[in-house]
Inverse folding.
């Protein structure tokens, strides 16, 4: 019985220590994503056609939030109401840096 109990305790202790190290590392290296990425993506039509020149709607949403482009009209399948919603949202919602964005619709 002792032949099995000691290795089990050692492996259990190693697992507990490694689990604590991973939990600590997860907190220290946590990446907080700007919630505007998801919201702008949800406001786009969702066709993922690439007509805007970006790889799908998520690519355009990232470009708008990251200030790579300021022209919502690049999304040709969207209608004017969707574009206005995106412009209004970005103008009224600050990001993690506290800055609001100005985009053309």
């Amino acid at each position: 019985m002792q032949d099995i109990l000691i290795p089990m305790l050692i492996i259990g202790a190693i697992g507990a220590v490694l689990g604590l190290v991973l939990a600590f590392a997860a907190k220290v290296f946590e990446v907080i994503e700007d919630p505007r990425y998801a919201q702008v993506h949800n406001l786009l039509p969702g066709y993922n056609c690439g007509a805007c020149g970006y790889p799908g709607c998520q690519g355009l949403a990232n470009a708008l939030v990251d200030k790579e482009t300021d022209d919502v009209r690049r999304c040709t399948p969207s209608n004017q109401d969707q574009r206005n919603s995106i412009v209004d949202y970005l103008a009224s919602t600050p990001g993690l840096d506290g800055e609001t964005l100005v985009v053309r619709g």
User: Anything to note?
Assistant: The first helix runs from residue 2 to 28. Residues 59 and 102 are 18 Å apart (CA to CA). The chain has four helices and no strands.
